[in-house]
TrEMBL record, chain B:
The chain crosses the membrane at residues 95-117, 129-147, 167-187, 230-251, 257-275, 282-301. It is found in: Membrane. It comes from the Bacteria. Its main location: membrane. Keywords: Membrane, Transmembrane, Transmembrane helix. This is Hydrogenase. Pfam families: NADHdh. Coiled coil: none annotated. It comes from Desulfolutivibrio sulfodismutans. InterPro entries: ComplexI_Subunit1 (IPR052561), NADH_UbQ_OxRdtase_su1/FPO (IPR001694). One of its GO terms (cellular component) is plasma membrane. It is a multi-pass membrane protein.
Length: 214, 302
């Protein structure tokens, strides 16, 4: 199996996870999907690196895999247990419409990849990465629960990670690691924030913020 | 030549056996002994020996329905290759003839159901029409992805172009198309999770409720056409998973049979481990099949 078909094989789960995230209302499923997507994405730098395996790519992959595949899901599961929610109920945008928008986003990213003149080998991976970013933004904008918005944030981060792996193979390690650390802290803080929102409002619907007065 | 004849003869004889395999797998999952593998042959023979009672409100359409359905399915059969065996008939663009022959069979089944004037049959007919409306574009999308993958517009050609080597280079595409085709197989053959062939409540039936008023030889035709249709879809879906022809006739035939019966066993397992979906949840599942096929198409092209 050559590297290009391996890259294709990695692209498919990423795109499917995007669509499944838009379609699923169960938060546990969402966590698993994001974790799966993160795990797949965190090994892509190995595929796109042109030369022999360097230490810093290996470190980056290992750290990303550890954070995205293990630490985030554990943290999110813990938060989920503390705030008693199971389902995303009544999003601003229905599930069928979300999936449709997700597919449109994928098509738009394919179009964009064509316009930008991305090298043929990474054409689809670029599209998948951009689609993941769009999916993440869509989740953040159209879901009411703070929890699902964190999922959207993580999906967008997955997309950005894949994008750097595609466009700058063997790229700047420190920037990547710094971003990963930022995301780690953000998820940590969000977990605490969700807990506090839950305590304050008895739910984690962010549209309740609209009724806040000083 | 022998191979082409065999690709048509084997399904004609063995198609009901695939149904037996499904029943047996389901029975084993439930911890039962199960009916004999050849039960459906006995059922068909029994029905053929009976007379039929036909309502006076029906017209010739009611009688014609099962016959045309069987004829259309029989006509679609020669387009399907079996494992390594080539299809008996194949020409560029035969996928359209193939799909529309099956659609014609279904159309006449629906017409016959509407012809009874029974409200239940009308309900079943409307459901079947809706599902087939959704399943047909998905089937075309999956076949289109295959056509682009192999650069061949005949069913036999595009399926035989798949080899072990193409799995190495195009595994994501082929895997997506196989999953899409399996979902379409379940939908088109009215299996769980789309429809429960064993249900006995008219309100929940889809395919079965359409054929409630048929009896005797008509019903035997329906049953036989149903087994052939399952065979056709199973053969199409599994020939993707099997490497290309080896050239040895017996080996190719055996390989094809193994594929079809494995597909039947997979259907049995699917039916055992999951429940039938609510009617409103079916279109999203078919849309998922379509999404798989569309994704495969995107991955092939560009």
């Amino acid at each position: 199996m050559d590297m290009i078909s391996l890259a294709h094989a990695a692209v498919v789960p990423v795109i499917l996870a995007n669509l499944a995230l838009l379609a699923s209302s169960r938060l546990v499923t969402c966590i698993r999907l994001v974790a799966l997507q993160g795990a797949v994405i965190s090994v892509t730098p190995l595929i796109f690196e042109s030369g022999p395996l360097t230490v810093h790519t290996a470190v980056l992959c290992a750290v990303a895999l550890g954070l995205k595949g293990v630490v985030f899901p554990l943290l999110l599961h813990r938060t989920l247990r503390r705030v008693v929610v199971r389902h995303e109920i009544e999003p601003y945008l229905g599930y069928p419409l979300s999936i449709l928008l997700g597919i449109l986003g994928l098509l738009a990213s394919l179009w964009l990849a064509g316009r930008l003149g991305v090298p043929a080998g990474s054409y689809r991976s670029f599209a998948a990465a951009f689609a993941a970013i769009l999916t993440g933004l869509l989740l953040i904008v159209t879901r009411k629960k703070a929890f699902t918005q964190v999922m959207g944030y993580l999906t967008a981060e997955n997309g950005i990670f894949l994008l750097t792996a595609v466009l700058a193979p063997g790229g700047p390690l420190f920037i990547e690691l710094a971003i990963l650390l930022d995301v780690f802290v953000a998820v940590f803080v969000m977990g605490i924030a969700i807990h506090h929102i839950n305590r304050q409002f008895d739910c984690i619907d962010t549209d309740r913020f609209c009724s806040l007065k000083d | 030549m022998t191979a082409r004849v065999l690709a048509v003869l084997l399904p004609l004889v063995l198609a009901p056996l695939a149904f037996g395999v499904i029943h047996r797998v389901k029975a084993r999952f439930a911890g039962r002994q199960g009916k004999p593998l050849t039960q459906i042959y006995l059922d068909i023979r029994k029905c053929l020996g009976k007379g039929a009672t036909i309502s006076r409100t029906t017209t010739w359409l009611f009688r014609a329905g099962p016959t045309i359905n069987l004829a259309a399915t029989l006509a679609a059969l020669p387009f399907v290759p079996l494992g390594g065996l080539p299809a008996a008939v194949s020409f560029p663009g035969d996928i359209f003839v193939f799909v529309y022959l099956l659609a014609m069979g279904r159309f006449f089944t629906i017409m016959a159901a509407l012809d009874t004037g029974s409200s239940f049959e009308g309900m079943g007919a409307s459901r079947e029409a809706v599902y087939s409306c959704l399943a047909e574009p998905m089937l075309f999308l999956a076949l289109l992805a295959l056509a682009r993958h192999s650069g061949d517009l005949s069913l036999s050609g595009m399926l035989s172009a798949v080899s072990a080597g193409s799995w190495l280079t195009g595994a994501p595409v082929l895997a997506l198309v196989t999953v899409a085709l399996f979902l379409i197989l379940l939908a088109e053959n009215c299996r769980v999770p789309f429809d429960d062939p064993n249900t006995h409540l008219e309100l929940t039936m889809i395919h079965e409720v359409m054929v409630l008023d048929h009896g005797g030889p008509d019903f035997a035709f329906i049953e036989y056409a149903q087994t052939l249709k399952l065979w056709i879809f199973a053969a199409v879906a599994t020939s993707l998973l099997l490497p290309a022809a080896s050239g040895v006739l017996a080996w190719d035939a055996l390989w094809g049979l193994a594929g079809v019966f494995a597909a039947a066993a997979a259907v049995g397992v699917t039916e055992s481990v999951m429940a039938r979906l609510r009617l409103t949840r079916v279109p999203p599942l078919l849309a998922a099949a379509g999404a798989f096929a569309a994704l495969a198409l995107i991955l092939v092209g560009g």
